[in-house]
Design brief:
Blueprint lengths: L1 E3 L3 H10 L10 E3 L2 E3 L8 H10 L20 H4 L17 E3 L2 E4 L9 H11 L5 E10 L4 E9 L4 E6 L2 E6 L10 H8 L7 E4 L6 H9 L4 E6 L2 H13 L6 E5 L2 H4 L10 E4 L9 H7 L5 E10 L4 H13 L5 E14 L2 E10 L1
Parallel strand pairs: 5-6, 10-11, 10-13, 11-12, 13-14
Antiparallel strand pairs: 1-3, 2-3, 4-5, 6-7, 8-9, 14-16, 15-16
């Protein structure tokens, strides 16, 4: 069965559920189409189901080649290719967004980058493309330099997280899969009819999850990156929450001016490199009677989270508001050997 590349993940799930997918054979590629081997021809009823899910698909007889047996570990996959002296330099972790792996490589592995990439493909059957980081997250659009070192296809993918689907392009938008638990933690606090203002929404991982969990909530999702807003709108439709997620394109300081009369019960500030500069904005859009601010900041590794919380409280006082209670203040992830990300949840009056 041939389907457009964008529908590959959904097709695999559908065929697995219908017990039609044949394992042990390589997928084929014809331009932008992906060929998936089937155990047998679909019945008339099964074809009807496939037509409902996929507008562009076709069934045809094709010769598929056997797959290469995949090794489970990267170390095993690159044995005999990467010198033993460089084995300690192999990456110990990677980020997987949809079917794309993003990895940081030591400069010592420059000559073996493609071999490491192929090893990652062998060790991770669900990955089709491996990208190497070539720079940090930079610019107002929060994008990162990436270079393909192995695999096939473009940089657009479909990522699944806690029952939500997020289509995105890892080159033109920012998405961090390591914050999935943090997003779920925050979303779990939202009440049934709350108004949420997500100041730096990206492709919608906070906004859409909240709207999915609380069908009576209303989420205003702001972002300055046009590509992020494009995918945010698409993701709201994919997840059937477009009636309660309102995408707003533009810098949070300017675009939030239209929300002053709304009054948010909760403001999310997931831009740790710049969030302090927007605390005045958060205080303005927060309901006058008070509400929660979810604040993120990078801090030197080893600094006590309480110190970040104290700085937050001082900044809130400077806006003629006050922190009534801290419900959470802790490290959510280690960013580098010298830096960490701290989350602060506070009820602000």
């Amino acid at each position: 069965m041939f389907v457009p590349q964008r529908d590959t993940e959904l097709a695999l799930e559908t065929l697995e559920r219908m017990r039609l997918k044949l394992d042990g054979l390589r997928f084929q590629r014809e331009g932008k189409l992906v060929g998936i081997p089937l155990i047998r021809s679909p019945s008339a009823e099964e074809e009807s189901i496939l037509r409902e899910k996929f507008v562009d698909y076709r069934i045809q007889e094709t010769a598929f080649e056997p797959t290469v047996v995949r090794t489970r570990k990267l170390v095993d996959a690159v044995q005999g290719i990467v010198p033993q002296t460089l084995m300690p330099e192999l990456p110990r972790s990677l980020d997987v967004v949809g079917d794309i792996a993003i990895v940081e490589l030591s400069p010592k592995l420059d000559s073996y980058a493609s071999a490491v990439g192929e090893g990652i493909l062998q060790a991770n059957p669900c990955v089709r493309l491996v990208l190497r980081k070539t720079g940090g997250v930079e610019g107002v659009f929060r994008t990162r330099g990436l270079k393909a070192i192995a695999g096939l296809g473009g940089t657009e993918t479909l990522h699944r997280e806690f029952g939500c689907k997020y289509r995105l392009d890892v080159l033109s938008t920012y998405f961090n899969p390591r914050l999935s638990s943090e997003r779920r933690r925050v979303a779990g606090q939202v009440g049934k009819t709350e108004v949420i203002i997500d100041l730096f929404a990206g492709v919608g991982p906070y906004s859409i999850l909240i709207a999915k969990l609380q069908s009576c909530s209303r989420v205003y999702a702001l972002d300055i990156n046009p590509s992020a807003i494009k995918y945010l709108k698409e993701n709201a439709l994919i997840n059937q929450v477009a009636d309660r997620v309102i995408p707003i394109e533009g810098d949070a300081r300017e675009s939030s001016k239209n929300l002053l009369s709304v009054g948010g019960d909760r403001v999310i500030m997931n831009l740790p490199s710049e969030s302090e500069r927007y605390l005045d904005v958060a205080c303005r859009v927060l309901r006058p009677t008070g509400g929660y601010i979810h604040f993120y900041k990078f801090a030197p590794r080893g600094e006590k989270p309480e110190t970040v919380g104290a700085g937050f409280a001082n900044a809130i006082r400077a806006q003629n508001r006050k922190v009534e209670v801290f419900s959470y203040c802790d490290v959510v992830r280690e960013v580098s050997p010298t830096r960490m990300q701290v989350a602060v949840d506070a009820f602000v009056k």
